[in-house]
Amino acid sequence: MEYRGLGRAGVQVSMLCLGCMMFGGRTDEANSMDIIDRAIDAGINFLDTANVYSRGRSEEIVGKALVRNGRRHRIVLATKVHGRMDDEDPNARGSHRRHIIEQCEASLRRLQTDYIDLYQIHRPSSEVPIDETLRALDDLIRAGKVRYIGTSTFAAWQVLESLWVSKELGLHRFICEQPPYHLLDRRIERELVPMAQTYGLALIPWSPLAGGFLTGKYRRGETRPEGARFQEGDEWDDRHFTDDAFDVLEVVEAIAKEKGCTPGQFALAWCAQQPGITSPIIGPRSMEQLEDNLGAVNVKVTDEDRARIDAVAPPGRATVPYYQADFGPHKFRW
Predict the structure, then answer these.
(1) 20 to 30 Å CA-CA from 323: which of 83, 211, 224, 245?
(2) Phi and psi based region of residue 116 (left: phi greater than 0; alpha: psi -120 to 50; beta: remaining)
(3) Res 106 pLDDT > 70
(4) 323 belongs to the catalytic site
């Protein structure tokens, strides 16, 4: 396993991050804990979850697994805050001080730990000024409950604004951003990647396999597999099933066959070996998926491979527009 610096922090994290979104949901507790143990045994020391994943259940399972295996001290443990945690309480969501501090305490209890290595704001918002958010996070760092802070799905200008505010007010700054990034959506290469490289931020992409589309489990013109993540009739799911997306997949499959690896392993290796990328987040639902993901660390992506990919998935462009955020009075498209 290769280890890389987490932005300017200097902390070393594995080139693959274990995403824990499925734990407590589609993956039961016993299998989730086994996946965590196997990932750590394989050299992964970076785990990412969030309070909203199964409304805290994912955090509970991660905490229980780390207590059972006794390896919390070796893990860079990341979680996130922002999403709604109570349907009846209007304050149980967002990036304001009340919610951040309340949810940090709740996450610490669920994770059974005294500190969170990386605490991230799960989504940007126009409802709360960034200085309100940063001051709350700064207090958590000074209290020893959080080591580092980061963002998820922020635009380049929003990250840059936060860095300016941190400098002006003498607050701890964000050290990483967690964007959507994969072969079907390369838009972060326009501004976010150069910005992160300039200011020393780590990039931890989510959904590097485009929700599983790039594993090759879906075929052009064929019925989608029963039980697979993407089903027909859902706008989010259907956006993946275009001729352009399948054109990209066919090139991925051809290169993977030549290398003797699976399409998913090549797609994941491509993401991990792109400029500016620190650690793509894998989100295995089963041990079989984890084992396949782990094989990506042995796949070498060449300049010739990149040229073939660029021909069907041009740099900076989106074959599949993967994310659109609603920021109050206006909408922002990645």
Answers:
(1) 224
(2) beta
(3) yes
(4) no
Q: What residues pair up with 48 in beta bridges, in sequence order?
A: 19, 78
Q: Which residues contact 109 (CB under 8 A, 6 or more apart)?
A: none
Distance of CA 182 to the CA centre of its chain: 11
Q: Shortest CA distance to 17 belongs to which of 34, 39, 41, 50?
A: 39
HEC string of 229-242 equals: CCCCCCHHHHCCCC
Q: Nearest 5°: phi and psi at 206?
A: -100, 155
SS3 at position 275: coil
Stretch 258-278: mean pLDDT: 98
Residue in this structure with the two tokens 């295996």, named with its chain if needed: 69
Contact 11, 41 (CB under 8 A): no
Q: What number of other Cβ atoms are within 10 A of residue 253's Cβ?
A: 17
- Torsion on CA atoms 305, 307, 312, 313, rounded to nearest 10: 90
**Pick from 10, 5, 8: which is nearest to 174 by CA?**
8
Q: Using the Cα atoms of residue 279, residue 281, residue 286 and residue 289 in order, give the sign of their dihedral.
A: negative
> Structure pTM?
0.92
Instruction: State residue 96 phi and psi, 5-degree precision.
Output: -90, 160
Question: Which residue ranges form the domains of the chain, and what is each CATH number?
Answer: 3-333 (3.20.20.100)
Q: What is the pLDDT of residues 28-73, one digit of tens each?
A: 999 999 999 999 999 999 999 999 999 999 999 999 999 999 999 9
Helix H or strand E segment including 332 = strand 330-333
Q: What are the tens digits of pLDDT across the range 304-314? A: 999 999 999 99
What pLDDT does residue 323 have?
Answer: 56
Amino acid identity at 127: E
Could you say which of 3, 53, 119, 218 is catalytic?
A: 53
Name beta bridge partners: 35. Answer: none
Compute the half-sphere exposure of residue 253: CA atoms within 13 Å on the CB side of its CA.
14
Q: Which helix (H) or strand (E) holds 271?
A: helix 263-272
